[in-house]
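Standup notes
- HV: blocked on the assembly model, inputs below
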Amino acid sequence: MVLRSPAPPLIQGQRLSRVYALGAARVPALREVDLSIQRADFVVLCGPSGSGKTTLINLLGLLDRPDHGTLLVGGREVAGLDENARSDLRRDRFGFVFQTFSLVPVLSAAENVELPMTLRKLARPARRERARSLLARVGLQGKDAVRPDLLSGGERQRVAVARALASDPEVVFADEPTANLDSRGAGEILDLMRELNAERQVAFVVATHDPRVVERARRVILIEDGRIVRET
Amino acid sequence: MSLLAFAFRNVARNRRRSLLTGGVVAFGFAAFALAGGFMAQSLEGLREGTIRNGIGHLQIARAEEFRGGGDATLEHGLTRVPEIERILRADAEVVEVLPRIEFVGLVSNGNRSVPFLGSGVHPTRETRTMDLPRVLAAGRWLEGREERGVVLGAGLAAALSVGADDTVTLLATTADGTLNAVDAHVTGLADIPIRELSERFLATSIGLADELLSASGRVSRVVVVLGSVSDSRAAGERLDARLRQAGFELEVRTWEDLAVFYRQVRLLYLGIFGFLGAVLVAVVLLATANTMTMAVAERTREVGILRALGTRPRRILGMFLAEGAWLGALGCAAGALLSLLLTAILNRSGIELPAPPGATHGMLLHVRVYVAAYASGALAMLATLLLASFLPARRASRMTIVEALAHV
């Protein structure tokens, strides 16, 4: 019998802390948080506004650096990486869906989806084909050439989800992805994310205080005052 | 999508602002191109005038003659002139050789005597290569190397109250120090644009000058006209070597060495052009820096998103620099068209510029399409736009992603 060591978590944060300076005051946004993200996880970070959800997503997604604590991505410590290396890690391993206005206005829906692939220097025909296929998968077939300002809020978020999946990431971070959508649009986006999570084995980390999202989650982490107070 | 294509779309995104900024660049470029074209035209005119009004491309004389200050007329004059001419004419670049006797004296109408700066010339050779015989205010140019005639500067003729066909007497000191006088008829009046020279200018045949000065075949210097102005120095060095090889210890000077006025004007023009250029660059820099700063401020959140998706900071920097380059390039293209249009209008306008200090008449405004001015204008505008874009672009590339994403 061959014994294999278990694969390391996709992301592992240990005692992560982040303090923001507001004038002379120092406001702790996150206090010694431990968290691991496994392959195909669907994790919801919930809690009231200002509890530290976005700060935690920013740290896990390498958009920000912790003041204290250790962060491992694929088992590798990332504290010593420079901005270019962090950019490359985000480009290759992560996808992002933001609250609103996250599409580049001068690019069409397809070009927005192509953007991460352009950064990876994928050949144009392959980019085009994958963007078309992803847009079709999120229900936007035939909208490839449409500019973001001509799409509804829900459609824009679908484009953002397609873009987040463009570079075949391991983890997609979504920060309040339903905050500006009506209940129907929000439900559709959530269903889409769950389907993609199951279908592609992509981990999703969603920060929200939307109860509809929490209802659909397998793993819910409640954050208050910068601390994880409950995980179910 | 390539960086340049992406940048172009961003430039086109805010059309009104881009048009205004492009307009500033276009006017800056046009100012460069027009000022440069006017300067080039003026300098070329002055250069050709300097060469064709008497200096020629090269002058050959004894070093002492160039330094001046001799005690007697033709003290440092050239002998064996036919031999020198033969050596010079053997060079393929040499178009004409003009022996000259330079001298001073008094010219008299019988009642009044006025000092002059005289030049004994070979009339037919001068006619072939110099402008002076063609720009007479009255009368005709000299006809033969022995003609007993003079051409006076219009100012000198006015001072003496003489005109074409009148007779004057020339008085000068001969080579051996005695005073000599000859009569000569005035064949024509020269239109000399510089007032001081017009009041002193006198040209006569080399034969009459030789007789007046008892020169015995000696000349002050030999002027050489070349086929092209561009290789004067090289031709000068070549001819100098050939003359030395033949045993002549002479000095060869180019028109640039001799044309002090041209050099001064050129320096003045370059100074004015440089100052105007600096002012233009400063104005364009301020206007475009404001545009680029606004572009970065408006798109802070977009920069955050691009960075989050994995765009490296250097690419963000490149993105905004490329936008600046597009604005510069489009502005320069519009500026080039504007310059061509204004050049055509100005050249057809018939505007006469006032006479410069020391000159007797003005000149028509003419602007040349000077490729170097267009190129330097384009380079200056592009460099200005890149400079104006750099600081905002660097700020964008150094923004923290979290701050950029939080920007409203």
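- HV (later): unblocked. Chain A touches chain B through 29 residues (CB under 8 Å). The domain at 40-60+90-231 of chain A is CATH 3.40.50.300 (Rossmann fold).
- Next: hand off to the docking folks.
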